[in-house]
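My current task is to audit a protein record that another person submitted. I need someone to confirm that the token line plausibly describes how this chain folds. Take the sequence as given and treat only the tokens as open to question. This is what I was given:
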Amino acid sequence: MIQFYKPTKSSTGTAASFSFNKDAIWLQLIKQSSWNDQTRTGSFAASRNDPNKTISIKLNPTEISAWIKAIGDNSPINVQFGKDGLFHTTDKGTTIINFGPYIGQDQVQRGYSLSVSSKTKDGQNQKSFLIGFTFAEGELIANYMKFALNKFFTIKYNEYAKSKPVAPKQEVEQEAQQPPVDDSLAFLDGDTFTIPE
């Protein structure tokens, strides 16, 4: 799991975490709940159990690959899909995920930004999240996603290998004891060679 905490003095910050299970990466976002001026720290704890201040999103391997490509190409993730972002639609509502370069007011790229908006089908419950990442954090996310994809492929391969019928052990041992036949030297059969002294 990798985590990012981006508190602000105005308590409008966001924390993000990326975690992997056997078939997906989960992106979890939580809104900042408070700011302590004395310690100059923000807290997210009070928002943890508030469904209006948190969201969990399951990213599949194709979406993960698009995210990696967006960071590698330094382009918005929606370029990969030709839409306004990654869309997740369920019977409860719609979530739109956008990730791409963050350009400051001076028109210089400062890193990356992630925005997520979610609304219920009836439109009554809407929430949005925004968080920025440095260039280094963007690379960390891309590398974590590559790691997760590698694990995903390993898990899928192992599941496939377990489902294949395995040859009986005795036959496998006999095959291992017999040397392979090398037909490339068949023309030498019966020939005698003398090595001069």
About this structure: The two ends are 71 Å apart (CA to CA). The first strand starts at residue 2 and ends at 6. Residues 2-160 form a domain with the Transcriptional Co-activator pc4; Chain A fold (CATH 2.30.31.40). The first helix runs from residue 61 to 73.
